[in-house]
């Protein structure tokens, strides 16, 4: 027998609201999944979970988890993310050519068998490959599009449409990636304004659009002199958040942190697999005309402006989720990691005082 909305579990409540959410956003696709649930699920019948509903329920579970099971907050974030996808079409960006001179060698995706029949998806951000900060980060919209395209590649490898059962209540979500940020040759003591601007926009966008898709974040080739910053984080961040951060001075130490896939990790990171540069990446080209044509076809307003004005908010809707999301993007040069913020917008004063380009903040997602 169907229960009232008030009596339903958060997942059932959000599922019941899905038709209205999709109608308001004017878009139904999230990470390759067409969001739809059966009539039984909409009515709160918990015996009818799974099957064709499973991919959608996993997506909804991620938005709920990012908002501590607050159904109203999860609905607002899901609506904003759907509106962003409608405006930007990040799945389409995967096939769009990006300028190799600006983004070549900067990001890759690899998959690794953990020995138990499960693929572990790893996204790599190799910031030491940036040759010209102005070229790579100067056009914020282009950088965010490239970063979203890389996320889409990783999400594709999760094969969310193949899911047959939703995540059980209280169980660990297995449909997440590992992310590695490599800071080899990156300066932590000189901040470029272009890097700051691109980082802030990226953090805001990914935290809104890709919640609960990262299981752990590894920060490798971090100078030992900066280790005190991560040590100080245990006094300020929630244990659940802190457990996702793994700083290390040497990239080759990564294999010891991931013993289940150590053998197949790239050789640069202590494994015996091919170089990370042989992983899949976004489509790159040296043809400036092709890049310009693709950019013109996908040109959109500033990314966060894609959120509908119907929300009637003074600030971009994505900003509401930054302080609530327990995971972290920690893009290089995060402005959020340097400037003091009100108590409701930052985890602690330690983030504001931290060196640029390295400190993991709670502000995001991806």
UniProtKB/TrEMBL annotation:
Listed CDD domains: SEC14 (cd00170)
UniProt GO MF annotations: metal ion binding; phosphatidylinositol transfer activity
Keyword annotations of the record: Cytoplasm, Endoplasmic reticulum, Heme, Iron, Lipid transport, Membrane, Metal-binding, Microsome, Transmembrane, Transmembrane helix, Transport
Compartment(s): Cytoplasm; Endoplasmic reticulum membrane; Microsome membrane
Biased amino acid composition, Low complexity: 345-360
Domain of life: Eukaryota
Gene Ontology cellular-component annotations: cortical endoplasmic reticulum; cytosol; endoplasmic reticulum membrane; plasma membrane
InterPro entries per the UniProt record, alphabetical: CRAL-TRIO_dom (IPR001251), CRAL-TRIO_dom_sf (IPR036865), CRAL/TRIO_N_dom (IPR011074), CRAL/TRIO_N_dom_sf (IPR036273), Sfh5 (IPR042938)
Domain CRAL-TRIO: start-end pairs: 96-277
Residues making up the signal peptide according to the UniProt record: none
One of the GO BP terms on file: regulation of exocytosis
Transmembrane spans: 218-237
Membrane topology recorded in Swiss-Prot or TrEMBL: Peripheral membrane protein
Pfam families referenced in this protein's UniProt entry, alphabetically: CRAL_TRIO (PF00650), CRAL_TRIO_N (PF03765)
Annotated stretches, region: Disordered: 310-366
Catalytic activity, as annotated: a 1,2-diacyl-sn-glycero-3-phospho-(1D-myo-inositol)(in) = a 1,2-diacyl-sn-glycero-3-phospho-(1D-myo-inositol)(out)
Cofactor field: heme b
Similarity comment: family membership: Belongs to the SFH5 family.
Function: Non-classical phosphatidylinositol (PtdIns) transfer protein (PITP), which exhibits PtdIns-binding/transfer activity in the absence of detectable PtdCho-binding/transfer activity. Regulates PtdIns(4,5)P2 homeostasis at the plasma membrane. Heme-binding protein that may play a role in organic oxidant-induced stress responses.
Name of the protein in question: Phosphatidylinositol transfer protein SFH5
Organism of this sequence: Ophiocordyceps sinensis
Phylogenetic classification of the source organism: Eukaryota, Fungi, Dikarya, Ascomycota, Pezizomycotina
């Amino acid at each position: 027998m169907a229960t009232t909305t008030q009596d339903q579990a958060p997942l059932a409540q959000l599922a019941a609201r899905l038709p209205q959410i999709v109608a308001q956003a004017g878009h139904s696709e999230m990470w390759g999944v067409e969001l739809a649930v059966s009539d039984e699920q909409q009515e709160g019948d918990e015996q009818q979970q799974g099957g064709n509903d499973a991919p959608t329920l996993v997506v909804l579970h991620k938005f709920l988890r990012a908002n501590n099971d607050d159904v109203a907050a999860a609905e607002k974030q899901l609506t904003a993310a759907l509106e962003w996808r409608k405006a930007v079409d990040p799945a389409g960006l995967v096939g769009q050519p990006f300028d190799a001179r600006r983004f070549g060698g900067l990001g890759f995706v690899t998959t690794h068998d953990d020995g138990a029949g499960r693929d572990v998806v790893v996204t790599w951000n190799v910031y030491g490959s940036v040759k010209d900060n102005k070229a790579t980060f100067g056009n914020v919209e282009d950088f965010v599009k490239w970063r979203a395209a890389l996320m889409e590649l990783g999400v594709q490898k999760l094969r969310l449409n193949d899911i047959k059962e939703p995540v059980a209540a209280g169980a660990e979500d297995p449909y997440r990636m590992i992310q590695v940020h490599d800071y080899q040759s990156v300066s932590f003591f000189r901040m470029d304004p272009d890097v700051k601007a691109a980082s802030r926009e990226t953090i805001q966008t990914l935290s809104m659009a890709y919640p609960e898709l990262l299981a752990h974040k590894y920060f490798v080739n971090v100078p030992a002199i900066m280790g005190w910053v991560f040590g100080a984080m245990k006094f300020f961040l929630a244990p659940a958040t802190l457990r996702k951060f793994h700083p290390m001075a040497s990239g080759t130490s990564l294999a010891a942190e991931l013993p289940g896939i150590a053998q197949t990790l790239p050789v640069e990171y202590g494994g015996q697999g091919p170089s990370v540069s042989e992983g899949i990446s976004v489509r790159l080209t040296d043809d400036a005309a092709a890049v310009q044509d693709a950019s013109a076809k996908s040109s959109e307003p500033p990314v966060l402006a894609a959120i509908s004005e119907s929300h009637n908010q003074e600030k971009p809707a994505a900003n509401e989720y930054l302080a609530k999301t327990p995971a972290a993007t920690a893009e290089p040069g995060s402005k959020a990691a340097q400037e003091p913020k009100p108590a409701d917008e930052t985890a602690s004063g330690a983030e504001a005082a931290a060196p640029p380009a390295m400190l993991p903040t709670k502000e995001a997602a991806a």
